[in-house]
Amino acid sequence: MKHKSVPIMLGVCAAVLAAFADPAAAVGEKISDGVVRIGVMNDLSGPYAYVGGPHSVYAAQMAIDDFGGKVLGKPIELLSIDHQNKADIASNKAREWFDKNKVDILGEVAAGATALAAIKIAKEKNKIVLLSGPAPTRITNEDCTPITAHWTYDTYSLATGTARAVVKEGGDSWFFITADYTFGHSLEKDAADVVKGAGGKVLGSIRHPFPSADFSSFLLQAQASGAKVIGLANGGTDAINAIKQASEFGITPKQSLAALLFFVNDVHAMGLKATQGMYLTEAFYWDMNNETRAWSRRFFDKMKRMPNMVQAGIYSSITHYLKAVQAAGTDETGAVMAKMKAMPVNDMFAKNGKLREDGRMVHDMYLMQVKKPEESKYPWDYYHVRRTIPGNEAFIPLSKSTCPLVKKQ
Question: Could you say which of 172, 178, 315, 340 has the lowest number of CB atoms within 10 Å?
Fold first, then answer.
């Protein structure tokens, strides 16, 4: 027995010494296929393309480049695809990427239905999904998974800021015009709950196909309701079309509009004259401080427009993922997710952010009000920051979570 153990022990010692002699070789075994592959899946050609699109792909590349292009000595590769806002395409492409292209994580996966479809495949394959553009709270509630990181906002946080502020300003009766799919339904529900919780009332709602160009019939029904506020539970070109047509039909300013998901790009496209005074909730604004301005100007130099919160969130989530891989010494999903949840998020997007057990990244949100034209002093100077909403107030508290991963006290 003693003589047989000697070669085994010598072999073990040799392996340990080899690892110390060549640490890169030891690390290389912990990076699957010797490459960390990130797949950004979003709308590159449809109604959300200007929200994310190629600008989001560039934000992901910025994160990779700023990290040095390598992690643990191994290269980082970026892939991108247009899912056309179709759940079946998102699902099929996620499976192809994981099986054939050896993609390690998915990034953004903009839109609720496509995100939920991709998450299902990622869970099956035990791969991480970083979500910046999708909004439904069910992602970290009833449909939560151990591999999901919901980064930028959700329908609860958007409603918490905007709906509460509008009710406080006297907008206590609402009618919703809602995009007829997962995101719109979730946004309407969360906003309606806030309105009623703040003492207001909901007079009705109507759902429109996604995407829509003609909002005339929906706006006329909202007008007939007599509601003080028309809540737009949609986004992208749908929100822009609805706002433009409300003005054309003379519905505003007699009734107020509350855009529950609106971006700095929307303000830029429509102009301050059309959007002045509107409240909206943001996770990021390029002109918040020196750090946000420095990063945003680098983005602007390439893309010729300021970044929105989706693009800033993509940069932040991918950076945090790469830091976690570095800290874990591997790209193995369980080890990386453990590090992502243990490490605080500190970058230009968030300070002291926390990725919770339900997959929600908790950080401050901001209630904004669009400036009047005469208040804007330079290009893209569009917002007054009316309130910082602390993360523990902006997002669903764990005590109210329906996520099965959350341990109830």
Answer: 172
